[in-house]
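Me: Here is a favour to ask of a fellow structure person. Could you put it straight underneath, so I can go through it closely?

Assistant:
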Amino acid sequence: MRSLVSTATLMFAAGLAGTAAAQEPGRGVTTVDEIVVTAAPYGVTADATTIAVDVLDQEALLSAPAGGLGDVLNGLPGVRSTSFAAGASRPVIRGLAGPRVQVLANGLGLIDASSLSPDHQVAADPGEATRIEVLRGPQTLAFGGSAIGGVVNVIDGRIAEQAPEGGVSGRVSAQSSSVDEGVSVGAAISLAAGPLVFTLDGLRREAEDYDIPVPSESRRQLAAEGEAFEDTGATTLENSFVNLDAYGAGVSYIGGWGFVGLSVKRTETDYGVPGHAHHHEDEDHDDDHGHDEEEVVTIGLEQTRYDLRGVYDFAGGPLAQVRFAGGYADYTHTEFEGDETGTIFASEGYEGRVEVVQRRKGGWDGAFGLQALSRDFNAIGDEAYVPQTDIVEYGAFVLQRLDRGGWGLEGGLRVDTRDLDSVAGSESFTNVSGSLGVFAKPSEAWFVGASISRNGRAPTEAELFAEGPHIATRAFEIGDADLDSEEVTSLEAALHYDDGGLLEADLHLFHARYDGFIDLRPTGDEEDELPVFAYVQTDAEFYGLEAEARITAWSRGDDRVVLSGGYDIVRGSTDLGAASRVPPFALSAGVEASYGPLLARVKARRVGSQSRVAEFELPTDGYTRYDAFLGWRPAAVPGVMVYVEGQNLGDAEIREHASFLKDLAPAPGRNVRMGLSFTF
């Protein structure tokens, strides 16, 4: 504890040293176009940082397909989905998933159990969001060791930071889909009354079991079971339905000094888990004539969340802002076997953070802050493979950036502690993480950067204390209370080109070396008719690249034709063999045209096969997917878009290698989606 206090004091002093050199007149933080707030509290632009960033803004989200967070983000450079059917999907970034990818809501943790298991839904839906920021790689230190693989920040605008223009603003969206008879409707409104701004929003999504172009079990799965594949053609994936309700409200007080606001949100959802029926022996038959009955598994999720957030702008001096946020959530995830309650996962807790932003001076930006979390996790039922655990975390960080126009430096330091108190034992961890980057701007069009970082991640409650059957992974999982923190040294090179009109391109090369990589590996034993997997530590290596380019082939006024392409690949290996569920390469090409009120897009995406697999993991075939979108924005009704989209037009068999269910539940087949959005 003494070393933690000493390090935090040094970090605080470094932040103050930066502020003392950064005094300049004026208020607030310098604003630039397309600021990415998740990268740093003072904000940086996506094309001027060594961190790999993607942003989905409100316009893109209003016409995005209804679905889970992972599925909506799937296809961004280096991003895939766990694709646990329609009800649960979490982002996979550069081959890493679960606790290594931190999902945030307005900069705070979700306080749910989505990182514990792939069948657990994320308690933040893209349909609620006004903006989603995705950071790939561990270079960002603002959010702690759990961001060792990347950060996804879902920003919902429920707490207004400024008054709406004209006193009122809002959005409405509605869409339907043919593949699952799905319907999604969402709306939000923001009203100003003097210094107060009130917000109200709601989302409803319903979808039946979706259609698939082939039988649900793959050829490889059937061969592994000693059965022959029979291609009976298109069918429906049983138990792939989803129903979701999310609604919330907020109020903000906005003044010349900044803002402060409160919000409340309620999420209720139920969804099916295909391919995971539980078997129960029929007691009405004797042993000679007994048979197994299957009970389908469905999940009900409920969460109530309260948030406080605000910003105070200093009128002068070395500090520009103080940003603060706090949240409380009560989450329950119930797994049903038929009509009976199986296992209940509960998570209740608080999280808060304070960030102090330095006033910019001579191209010097900086911030420092504190973060704290207290969460109580509990699991009750036959498959409660992780015991009740109380988790307390503290963090302190400092970030600094110097931009001298033609070159610059950026870096940071963070200290984290995590204490876990369980009925299975107690463990404490302290990690120090740091990063340093350098960049150059040889001309107005070019940005070149490189960074090195060293990050630590404390083990989770599952990795330490698990012991029991985990049906989602089809394994009997055993934790290890002697696990040490996982540490990674990461190198990244970034190249960005934008000539302001004709060509825009991005390239990221990365290499990550893990010391004490925590992996779930088979032991060769069997328990409860399931193979036993144990958490072990080994060394691991991940490396790859992500490339994107956009070429404006023709333009006249606001009309244009843009060609685009992208490629990403990641390779992962450990000292015990290939890393599990590492996705194969993806290559995409598309054309987008806007002409008057019309917007059209056509895209093809090729995902390769994957034969580099871990034990008990089957190879996956590649696929090619074609999508086409047509939108109409009538000039007579500003803010309206009517659209139709064809998805997976070739009706391809799509099995995502990153998914535990890839051989039991393929992605939906051909789909026609129609929708309308309206902003005012």
